[in-house]
């Protein structure tokens, strides 16, 4: 019975790293899995009501921000991030039974997987051709659908696949641990409708989208100063084209702290005063549970105390 269970849209088919991230949130049977073909469709499924939540990749140690996710969240009906999950990323080069490594001419792979294995591929299979895939398990599903690995209609001989998915799709490994960076990780987020903000834990992150005032020298510096003077560290900042004219960029950033932290709230109010567009994309617990360094004069009590003092000054009672 799946009635009443939360519905999660995610990049499928089954066995992707995105599904591994979803499993950190809801076990099989605790939710309805809605596999889709791309990140934008997962996010749109929440907007249309086809899903309650989407699980999407937002940042990787190799590629930085996942632009499809950042762009989908930056515009359109507002959604928020509720939670983040980290997934270690490794790849196996796999194929249908019978295919040998020396026969491999064309490899199907998600573009992010391809870049993560570039050095290994250049060294071991220098003339191999990349056949782009929509996810890390899409080519595995094609092979499992019954086409032999050497079938010309398939268009590829092998695929870069998450290690855990090799067996479930009936593939055989040709080479394991082919990713160039052994400690590669991808950060995934749960996206849902705005509502109650997850409570502060003391180790939180706040994601924002900000547009700067046009033609103003130092506008980017002024935006960053809102955080700097209040002791708020940023763990990610990226520019993305707004899309309406050349030279117009939107900034997507993660700030350390929760919107209910005084220093973060004050910084966001500063952005609201100075910037033509600010979108709050959520405050949520950090997956690594690392607490921020609180600099002198930027604790909640400092802001509350300063506000009380100002009241006294204004009321003529300050000592
Ligand atoms: O979730 C997956 O498995 C994907 O296909 C997206 C992806 C690609 C590369 C690294 C992490 C996630």
Automatic annotation (TrEMBL):
Q: Which PROSITE patterns match?
A: ACT, PREPHENATE_DEHYDR_1, PREPHENATE_DEHYDR_2, PREPHENATE_DEHYDR_3
What keywords sit in the KW lines?
Answer: Amino-acid biosynthesis, Aromatic amino acid biosynthesis, Lyase, Phenylalanine biosynthesis
Give a GO biological-process term: L-phenylalanine biosynthetic process
Outline the extent of the Prephenate dehydratase domain: 7-193
Record EC number: 4.2.1.51
Which intervals hold domain ACT?
208-285
Site (Essential for prephenate dehydratase activity) location in chain? 186
Example of a GO cellular component annotation carried by this entry = cytoplasm
Catalyzes what? prephenate + H(+) = 3-phenylpyruvate + CO2 + H2O
GO MF annotation list: prephenate dehydratase activity
Domain of life here? Bacteria
Q: Which InterPro entries match?
A: ACT-like_dom_sf, ACT_dom, Chor_mutase/pphenate_deHydtase, Preph_deHydtase, Preph_deHydtase_CS
Class in the EC hierarchy, top level: lyase
Pathway of action = Amino-acid biosynthesis; L-phenylalanine biosynthesis; phenylpyruvate from prephenate: step 1/1
Name of this protein: Prephenate dehydratase
Q: Which organism is it from?
A: Cellulomonas humilata
